[in-house]
Amino acid sequence: MAPLNHAKDGLGSIVMTTVEDFLRWGQSNSLWPLTFGLACCAIEMMSAQDSDYDMARFGSEIFRPTPRQADLMIVAGTVCKRMAPRIKTLFEQMAEPRYVIAMGACTINGGPYQYTYSVVQGVDKIIPVDVHVPGCPPTPEALLQGLIKLQQAIRSREGRPRPVPFSPAELSEVSRS
Amino acid sequence: MSAPTDLQERFPSAVLQVGALDDGLPLLCVSPEALASIAAAAKELGFDYLACITGVDYPSDDQIEVIYNLYNYHRREALVIKVRIPRGVARLPSVSGVWRAALFLERETYDLLGVHFEGHPELKRILLPEPWVGHPLRKDYDMNRQQFVSKGPQGEDIVSFDPQEGW
After folding, report:
1. Whether residue A10 has pLDDT greater than 70
2. Which residue among A81, A82, A115 sits closest to B143, beta carbon to beta carbon?
3. What share of chain A is helix, strand, coil (3-state, %, to 5)?
4. Which of A18, A105, A117, A120 is most deeply buried (CB count within 10 A of its CB)?
5. Of A117, A120, A126, the CB nearest to B136
6. Side-chain half-sphere of A91: how many Cα atoms within 13 Å?
């Protein structure tokens, strides 16, 4: 989509775009996450939402208490085996198109809970994950970076976003700013 | 008189050892038959708070040790009671009649170590799903066989060793 350089000075009052691009743009800027925290990562997720980090800047402020009204699941915390089928049900109840951010080491691959009897070794074993946010726990900046990556992927023309890997350089760039 | 020696005088045959843990907490090792009466006596002495019930598996001795952490809020003193029972028939009298906190703590010890507390009104698993196979804190629990949990039509837990059947 063309940048809205003249949106406020009245010079460019016509913006050329396609319906599809416009829909993607709207979708990426109105992601409604599910109110859903499993462990300590959820504290950082709440922090990303509150006034210090203000996730609302990216159109993602409305945490919905029901999966029917949400289209983004931030899996924040250790996924126990007993919770796994419930997470799957919640994911299936969410509105399409739906996206998943796997937040933190536990959610990515089990993290510190390796070789245990009770922890799922990565939430991507049960539901498709779009963005992995590493850290134990990730900082709110890292979660915002993950959200921005997801928005970029939605806006791109490649359809359903692929999992976007992080590089350490990108992470330090975010935490410096 | 301190509480451990008091209990030792009242139950001379049941108290096997009086000592202290490494961090200084008074320790009482008792025989399983007298556990119920010793627990009641400890409550009378003012140990009104059962902080924790936990257990350790000692396969080399073929025994399971169950540990009760008590606290007396009036005199601010702690007491640790240890009981050893055989692994094969891991049975102990329930102390849920003495401290209600034992209702959940005994269920947890049953869940993870397979100790059966006789007289507990509802002894079932508390953390793991009910059809789970084995007790994970036992040393002979097979960690190489992963179990998978799925949800039945009524919301009940289904446990399977087959990852295709799980989630």
Report:
1. no
2. A115
3. 40, 10, 50
4. A120
5. A117
6. 21
pTM of the predicted model as reported, rounded to 2 decimal places: 0.78
Does B97 contact A at CB distance below 8 Å? Answer: no
Question: What ipTM did this prediction achieve?
Answer: 0.77
Which residue among B129, B141, B143 sits closest to A82, beta carbon to beta carbon? B129
One-letter amino acid for residue B70 of the chain: L
pLDDT at residue B133 is higher than 70: yes
Tokens of B100: 């209600």
- The CA distance from B167 to B153, in Å, is 13
pLDDT, tens digit (0-9, with 9 covering 90-100), for A67-112: 999 989 999 999 998 899 899 889 988 887 889 999 999 999 888 9
* Fold of the A31-153+161-167 domain: Rossmann fold (3.40.50)
Contacts of B129 in chain A (CB under 8 A): 82
Q: What are phi and psi of A35, to 5 degrees?
A: -70, 105
**Cβ proximity of A76 and A87 under 8 Å:** no
Q: Is A117 close to B157, i.e. CB distance below 8 A?
A: no
Structure-block tokens of residue A120: 């799922």
